[in-house]
Amino acid sequence: MADIASGMMDAKPREVHVGFMPLTDCAPLVVASEMGFDRRHGVKLVLHREASWANIRDKLGVGNFDCAHMLAPMPIAAALGLGRASDLIVAPMALSLNGNAITVSHRLYEEMLAADEASARAGGMAAAHAIASVVRARQQQGREPLTLGMVYPFSCHNYDLRYWLAAAGIDPDNDVNLIVVPPPLSVDALKTGRVDGFCVGQPWNSVAVAEGEGVIVATKSELWAMSPEKVLGVREDWVAKNPALVSDLVRALVTACQWLDEPENRKEAARILARPEYVGISEQILAGPLTGVLTRGGQQADIVDSDLVVFHRGYANFPWRSHALWVLTQMIRWGQVREPFDLKALTERVFRTDLYREAVAPLGVPAPASDNKQEGGEGDGVFFGSESFDPTAALIYLRDLEIRNSGTDLAAFTALNS
Predict the structure, then answer these.
(1) Which of 75, 129, 185, 386 has the fewest beta carbons closer than 10 A?
(2) Do 238 and 222 fall within a single domain?
(3) pLDDT tens track for 125-147
(4) What is the 3-state secondary structure (H, E, C) of 116-178?
(5) Considering the domain boundaries, does residue 384 fall inside one?
(6) Are residues 165 and 128 in the same domain?
(7) SS3 226
(8) What's the CA gap between 346 and 83, in Å, rounded?
(9) Is position 349 within any domain?
């Protein structure tokens, strides 16, 4: 590794323009640039802060960016031609796991306490039952349905929020209103009453609590242990033209992720991210989720959880194709895609485990033997309560989910993928 790094330092670093959102999990990109991990591997990151995921999508598509900090479902949506995508985007690595939370207004939290105090205070999956009680009471009283925000239609935030609601018997397409709110605007949307709650990445949940506007009722790690969140998105044609550069880029970011996962470095990461050109939120607010101590609000005890956001350990940088497959089941579940297609072929084209393995081999970083893994079940960590996901039986899993869009022909998907 030392010889590779020293050789790269002798060459002029190649500029790579990267789009990112002001979120805690942009840290690998920021740290790689600030700590010089990019130059160590012959790359110079030029970072561009954006205000919405749609901007990231569009600027990557037209070539303003070479790569981007992206929601894990975004490259998958692009491959399906969803969301005005024009070019195929691939993910040669994941940037982080976990990092999201569901936050509600104080007014809604008080309704949850009144309807089902035990579930509201328990948090996690249980808190969805308290929301369900509120939703049913509002329906009986003829009141307006709740409005909940998520950051982008093709996001784990959307699918996590929908899954959480559906697990408690709430149909997210008929019982509540779901709207898109860009992460930096989420707290203002809660403050002004535009939304009653939201699912967003940190630090915006913690900002809502710090400003006295919200209560965190569920963290991503409480819903699904070690779950997908952000990936490095790169246009497929750019990868084909720059294979060596992509490998160097992955090595630089994996090195940054290794640094980030050392507990003693998390406070320094918060200090860097607090700068206005990056996240621009106080170091103290950023440090909580990064160091695993989260203020939930609502006179609740703090959460102590080292898995609030994971950058490297547990194969966090490996672009699991089973993660992509689960995302596809949710796109089908909620009617975002209805024409049958080959699920396995799509996951193999978009989540490029081959590129990851090739890039990290010189670093001595281990990669899993398989491209897929089971979620939930005995010994496999929390997965939305007591449920599990077997990637070899994805359509059976989808068929067994009680609440889903009725317009999707699962038989046609099964016939094509059998």
Answers:
(1) 386
(2) no
(3) 999 999 999 999 999 999 999 99
(4) HHHHHHHCHHHHHHHHHHHHHHHHHHCCCCCEEEECCCCCHHHHHHHHHHHHCCCCCCCCCEE
(5) no
(6) yes
(7) coil
(8) 17
(9) yes
What domain count does the chain have?
Answer: 2
Say if 408 falls within a structural domain: no
Both 15 and 122 in one domain: the answer is no
Pair 25, 76 in one domain: yes
What CA–CA distance (Å, rounded) separates 358 from 376?
A: 29
163 and 92 in a common domain? no
* Separation of alpha carbons 298 and 277, rounded Å: 31
Dist CA 149 CA 135 (whole Å): 16
Structure-block tokens of residue 136: 């049913």
Tell me which residue has tokens 């996690």.
124
pLDDT digits (tens, 9 = 90+) for 351-407: 999 999 999 999 999 999 999 999 998 767 899 998 999 999 999 999 999 999 988
Domain that holds residue 207: 100-226+294-304
Single-letter amino acid code for the residue at 271: R
Residue 357 near residue 367, CB atoms below 8 Å: yes
How far apart CA 339 and CA 328 sit, in angstroms, is 12
Give the integer Cα–Cα distance in Å for 205 and 209.
7
Report the alpha-carbon angle 355-357-361, nearest 5.
Answer: 125
N-terminal to C-terminal alpha carbon distance within the chain: 44
Q: What is the CATH number of the domain that holds 278?
A: 3.40.190.10
Listed residue (317, 320, 333) closest to 366, CA to CA: 317
Cis check for the bond before 203: say yes or no (omega within 30 of 0). Answer: yes
